[in-house]
Amino acid sequence: MPHAVRAALLAALALSAVACGGGGSPNPPPAASPPGAPPPPLPPPPAAPSAPPTFTSPAIVSTRENMIGVIYRPVATDPNGDGVTYRATIGGPDAARFVMNPVTREIRFAVQPDFEAPADAGGNNVYDISFTASDGTTTTTQNVAITVTNVANGFRVRRVASGLAAPIYVAGLPDGSGRVVVVLRGGIIRVMNPTTGTFEANDLLNIASQIDTNGEKGLLSIAFSPNFVSDRTFYLHLNPNSASVTEIRKYRVMSDNYARADTTTADAILTIPQPSATNHKGGTLVFDTSGRMLISMGDGGSRSANAQENTTLLGKILRIDPSTDAFPTDAARDYAIPTANPFASGGGLPEIYASGLRNPFRISVDPATGDMFIGDVGQSAIEEIDRIAANKTTLTNFGWDQREGSQQYNGADNPAFTLPVTEYVRQVGTTVTGGVVYRGPIEDLQSQYIFGDFGSNTLWSVPITNLNVGTVFPSSSLTVRTTQFAPNTGTINSVVAFGTDTEGNVYFVDIGGEVFVLEPTP
User: Fold this and answer.
1) Do 388 and 292 form a contact (C-beta atoms < 8 A)?
2) What is the CA radius of gyration of the chain?
């Protein structure tokens, strides 16, 4: 190699060593993009500030006076897709006039509003409340004005359905749609719009192939969970054809359709053995105002002494809490025992709440007082209506089979037995159908207990202030409503239930195939 070339090469190597040493920049310059390559991506823009939730529920609501059902439910969404939580209390100047279900956020009046005596802060029948929603970062508040409107005096009974196959019960579908469900004894539950009388093309449930309809058996009633809009659960009182039992069965509706049951969710939460007799099976499920389930059970039809024995669930009113399971290892008992039950700590079956009943086919709970009313079908002399106060914790024993109504029947009477609040003899009627306390929009019927007789087709009402535990109100003082409740078309024969919808309207269910609604005069 020539000397000059060698010298130039050594000089270049020395410069390279200096450039890579500690005296220069710590990072080499970025490599140039090859010709034709796309430019590097731009840095992401700064995050946009979180937007607050937006209420989608209306800010202005109108409701009829005397309403005690659900009138509102605040709903909000978040534009960023964040989860939304709600303040647990109602705000606004009229907040004290309302109560809110902490699970579903459904709003009710604490006391039925009276148009003629407004109780709102402004005294003008516009109740101002507010709700607050949060996405965890930001909050928003919606002011809601609830206007109470007047309902004129007067009422009518309108036939809403006919030609049905043994309808036996009606209940409001608590999804905010105003629809009702009609229970057919053979095992089908249909969904109806009571304004038009039209039925949904698809049934809520069809289990006709599973139901025993011999004698007084069948699919006898339905009860929706107090938290239905969130847990989507309902319960049935039925007699399956697979065994001689009464089954309390639970279902959930589809997540995208409150009017269709998901049949894969069927769960028998309580199964009660029955004798071979086909009568006296009770038949009603209802929730009390504390969210506990009440179940009416007849004496079984073959042994009336069951009603006085606390080792059997027959001839009783049962009370359970189906929202939780205190027996996780027992597949046949999917519920808990309320701590206030008479035998919760022993001495009898813990499900028992009241005893001494022959066949309490229909029971109901007054949504205003929380008291339970029972229609107990008599043996051969007396038909009775019973009442239990909402705060009662000790056992109530109505006396069957040692007493029928207020009269001694079989063996020694006992002054500890609780008297009916009213009763009537067989010359008046033959088979009582327990009713409901009216809490709907009609002024003329407020706080009246409406009931009837399956055999004589007589319909009555009586103010509940006249139905006091310990005193038998005479049947001669009951108000006969048979003529006043005559419908616009059809005839109310063999009434088997008095149902209510979510607004408190009362329905008469005729086992012959018709359903009627008692409503304000339009």
Assistant:
1) no
2) 33
Burial class (CB in 10 A: 0-12, 13-18, 19+), 88: exposed
The whole-angstrom separation of Cα 308 and Cα 304 is 8
Listed as own residue / partner, the contacts of 25-31 with beta carbons closer than 8 Å and 24 or more positions apart are none
3-state secondary structure of 261: strand
Q: How far apart are CA 201 and CA 111, in angstroms?
A: 38
Decide: 473 and 487 in contact? Cβ < 8 Å: no
Task: Residue 472: name the closest of 522, 398, 401, 412 by CA.
Answer: 398
482 vs 475: CA distance, rounded Å: 15
**What is the H or E stretch that residue 145 is in?**
strand 139-149
Strands (E), 227-378: 233-238, 245-254, 257-273, 285-287, 293-297, 316-320, 352-355, 362-365, 372-376
CB 373 within 8 A of CB 437: yes
The widest CA-to-CA distance across the chain, in whole angstroms, is 141
Q: What is the pLDDT of residues 395-429, one digit of tens each?
A: 999 999 999 999 999 988 999 999 999 999 999 99
pTM score: 0.90
The dihedrals phi and psi of 417, each to the nearest 5 degrees, come to -65, 145
Other CB atoms within a 10 A radius of the CB of residue 483 amount to 7
Structure tokens at 490: 């059809």
18-26 CB contacts, 8 Å cutoff, 24+ apart: none
Question: Tell me: the pLDDT tens digits for 444-503?
Answer: 999 999 999 999 999 999 999 999 999 999 999 999 999 999 999 999 999 999 999 999
**How far does Cα 36 stand from its chain's mean position?**
69
Give the containing element (helix H, strand E) for 448.
strand 448-453
Instruction: Report how far residue 508's alpha carbon sits from residue 493's, in angstroms, rounded to the nearest whole number.
Output: 10
- Cα within 13 Å of Cα(379), Cβ side: 19
